[in-house]
Amino acid sequence: MQKVRIPVSVDPVKSANKKQTFDGVVPVQTLKRLQELLAKPCETDPLVIVEFGVDEQGMSYFSGTASVSVILTCQRCNQPFEVDITAQFAYAPVSSKQGAEELPERYEAIETNDFGEVNLHGLIEDELILAMPLVARHAPEDCSVDRDAMTWGEIEEDEKPSDNPFAVLQELKRK
Asked: Between the CA of residue 31 and those of 8, 93, 156, 157, what are the distances in Å?
């Protein structure tokens, strides 16, 4: 079965009232900021599931997951490697008049535009970027650099530790 394209923007309140679910892909060519972070441009579209609903408090929300396999550069050996990125999210729309302080902790606040819509593609791209590893590196057993064989510089001990930390300043003052 072919996956459908996730809409670029939606009205989260109307979609929540209809209890809509989107199961499809976001075209990878629209995710330019994500592509800039990769070692090699991604060729597969991220798989995305977004569910809209109204919770027991009557609050509109949407939640979902996005996953994609990307090629990053290992920060240890500088070689490319593949990593699966999965982002999970849950948002509740707020207008500029309504405060985000009123939201339950399980939801992130997302502001709607003037038409009451949210840019889903931009949001999914943000979530995938946040789900990337902070330091991209192979598993130690897969890396070409042996972590145990790395040598680090050694710090030489001072011959005679000074009792007074300001003694060096006294020496400079005399000169």
From this structure: 12, 22, 50, 52
Place of tokens 């949001």: 123
Per-residue pLDDT, averaged over 78-85, amounts to 92
Q: Which residues contact residue 157 at a Cβ distance below 8 angstroms, ignoring those fewer than 6 apart? A: none
Asked if residue 28 lies in contact with residue 35, where contact means CB atoms within 8 angstroms, the answer is yes
Instruction: Say if CB 6 and CB 30 are below 8 A apart.
Output: no
Query: Residue 13: CA atoms inside 13 Å, Cβ hemisphere, count?
Result: 12
Instruction: Determine the Cα–Cα distance for residues 6 and 14; give it in Å rounded to an integer.
Output: 16
pLDDT average, residue stretch 38-43: 90
- Give the Cα separation of 109 and 74 in Å (integer): 34
Share of the chain above pLDDT 90, in %: 50
What does pTM read for this prediction?
A: 0.78
Calculate Rg over the CA atoms of the chain.
25
